[in-house]
Amino acid sequence: MFRVAYRSVLRADLGAAEIESLIRDGLDHNARMGVTSAFLMNDKRCLHALEGAPKVIRSILECIWDDRRNEEFAILDIAYGEAALFPGWPLKVITAETIEAEPELHDHPGVNWLANLDSGLSHYFTAPRDGSES
Fold first, then answer.
1. What average pLDDT score do residues 69-87 get?
2. pLDDT tens, 31-61?
3. How many structural domains comprise the chain?
4. CA distances from 87 to 13, 51, 67, 70 (A)
C-alpha cells in the first residue's frame, strides 16, 4: 500500500460551497480509483493522507499541486505499508466537530499518524497561532 501525506491551506476566498464541492469531487474520484484517505481540516488548514496504487496517488497529487485552490502545499511523508490505514474511507473528512461526534477517532492509528506529522491531533484543532491560518 503506497501512502502519501501532505498539508496545504485552502485559499482564503474559498466559500463553503466551493469547499464542499472540492470534498465531494475528491470522495467520488477516490471511490472510483480505489483510494482511501483521511482529510483533517481546521478552518482552511488541511492535512490529507492518500493511500492506494502508486500511479493513482501520483496522479491525484499532481492535480492537487496544480489546483490553485490550495496554497502552501508540502509533502509530509511518503511510505509503503502492508495494509491500509484508512480502509473503507474513500475520503473521511475530520474536523473538530467530527472528533467531538466520533471520539474513537482519537485512538485511530491512521488519524494519529497523520496528525502527528504536523504537531499532533490536539494541537491541530486549536486556534491558529498569532491569528494566522498556517
1. 92
2. 999 999 999 998 889 999 999 999 999 999 9
3. 1
4. 33, 9, 26, 26
Identify the CATH number of the domain in which residue 47 sits: 3.30.70.100
Question: DSSP assignment of 54-105, as one string?
Answer: HHHHHHHHHHHHH-TTEEEEEEEEEEE-SS-SSTT-SSEEE-HHHHHH-GGG
Within its chain, how far is the Cα of 71 from the centroid?
A: 14
Taken in order 11, 25, 77, 88, the sign of the CA dihedral is positive
Sign of CA dihedral 121, 134, 15, 67: negative
**Banded pLDDT at 118 (limits 50, 70, 90):** confident
Secondary structure of residue 50 in the 3-state scheme? strand
On whether residue 108 sits in a domain, the answer given is: yes
Is 14 within a domain? Answer: yes
The reply to whether the predicted model has a pTM over 0.70 is yes
Residues 34, 60: Cα–Cα separation, whole Å: 12
Neighbour order of strands in the sheet with 2-10: 70-80, 2-10, 45-52, 36-42, 92-94
> The cell 492518500 sits on which residue?
50
